[in-house]
Design a protein that fits this description.
This protein is α/β, with parallel strands linked by helices. It has a domain at about 75-200: 3-Layer(aba) Sandwich (Rossmann fold), CATH 3.40.50. It is built from 12 helices and 15 strands. The chain has helices spanning about 80-90, 110, 125-130, 145-150, 165-180, 180-205, 230-235, 255-260, 275-280, 290-295, 305, 315-325; strands at about 20-25, 50, 75-80, 95-100, 115-120, 120, 135, 155-160, 210-215, 215, 220-225, 240, 250, 265, 295-300. The protein starts with 20 loop residues before the first strand and ends with a helix.
Length: about 325
């Protein structure tokens, strides 16, 4: 079976983003996973690293009030969905002069804001034609692009936003760079407070069901420790099965999953026929897995929220919590 569209993003050439996140090395096949560091978990020799992108549903992303000290004539080109939505959340859409084909939220930017290329592979010529005052990026496919931008006198800023704890910091940095610091501080503070509430709620919960997150089924791929998805699962009240491995995103042996016997299965891809939930419930050899026996298999998530580390992080936690809490006695 061919990989889903978003798997192409794991290739350095960055095919158009569809499912909201990208991995920055070639995505390994199951045959590539030759090392079993712990209990049958299939490690990848490539060692996948992740950047996910997107943003906000807490404070509205259309027309933020302009602070008195905000610069006039600012023209922002954003090269990552998370940064696009951070900009819109704190400054409104009117300051956005360019975006990537992956930047699809808030919806009003789709028809109004021109595309300057794909995620990680912008067109320098198109960017020059827009005459931006600042370019915000999270990861470029080729460092020479960054060098070219600087050589042409374009102002470029890289913003790290890969983990839950990066999100408020990224918002504050963007706010400082574009002159919307008060809005940024307010939004970042609100997200920090809500994340702390979820952390406390998780720590005081008496039950933490074992959650297996399936990102793709051929090869079977999951999220491990230090991944954004793992953070969300744990904050939402679960114990991420993939944390038993040292990788962030990796393929693994299905037999190992069966031995771990997860309480809940969360699926983050689409099926060509029927639903992913129906497919997993009928998967040969999985009938005795607790999640399958109890019907605790969930799909239909909005990956643009859950798999993108941005201002909509709280919505992502809430969505996972709704599924996880259904299976807690």
């Amino acid at each position: 079976m061919a990989p889903p569209p978003f798997m192409r993003l794991f290739h350095p050439h960055r095919a158009p983003l569809r499912y909201g996140f990208s991995l920055y090395t070639d995505f390994p096949s199951l045959t590539d996973a030759t090392v079993k560091p712990r209990n049958g978990v299939m490690n990848t020799h490539a060692g996948l690293s992740i950047f996910m992108a997107l943003a906000f549903g807490l404070a509205g992303c259309s027309k933020a009030a302009k602070p008195g000290n905000a610069p006039t004539g600012i023209r922002i080109v954003s090269l990552a969905p998370s940064l696009t939505e951070i900009v819109c959340a704190i400054a409104g859409t009117e300051v956005l002069a360019g975006r990537t084909s992956a930047c699809d939220y808030p919806p009003e930017i789709i028809d109004r804001v021109p595309i300057v290329g794909g995620f990680g592979v912008p067109s320098i010529e198109t960017i020059l034609s827009i005459e931006p005052t600042i370019i915000l990026e999270a990861d470029l496919a080729d460092q020479t692009m960054a060098n070219q931008m600087e050589a042409l006198g374009l102002r470029r800023e890289r913003i790290a936003c890969k983990s839950v704890r990066d999100i408020p910091l990224a918002i504050e940095k963007v706010g400082t760079l574009i002159g919307y610091e008060p809005q940024a501080l307010e939004l970042a503070g609100r997200i920090r407070s809500e994340l702390a509430d979820w952390q406390a709620r998780s720590e005081t919960s008496g039950t933490h069901p074992l959650v297996y997150a399936e990102i793709w089924n051929d090869p079977i791929t999951t999220a491990g420790t230090n991944s954004f998805l793992s953070d969300l699962i744990n904050l939402a009240g679960g114990r991420n099965l993939g944390d038993q491995a040292g990788n962030d995103y990796f393929t693994l042996d299905p037999e190992w999953i069966l031995k771990q016997n997860p309480d809940i299965i969360l699926c983050f891809y689409m099926s060509r026929e029927g639903t992913v939930r129906e497919t997993v419930l009928k998967r040969p050899g999985w009938a005795h897995v607790k999640a399958v026996t109890n019907g605790a298999v969930y799909d239909g998530f909005d990956n643009n929220i859950i798999l993108r580390p941005g201002p909509r992080v709280i919505q992502g936690i809430e969505a996972l919590h709704r599924s996880i809490s259904q299976s807690v006695p």
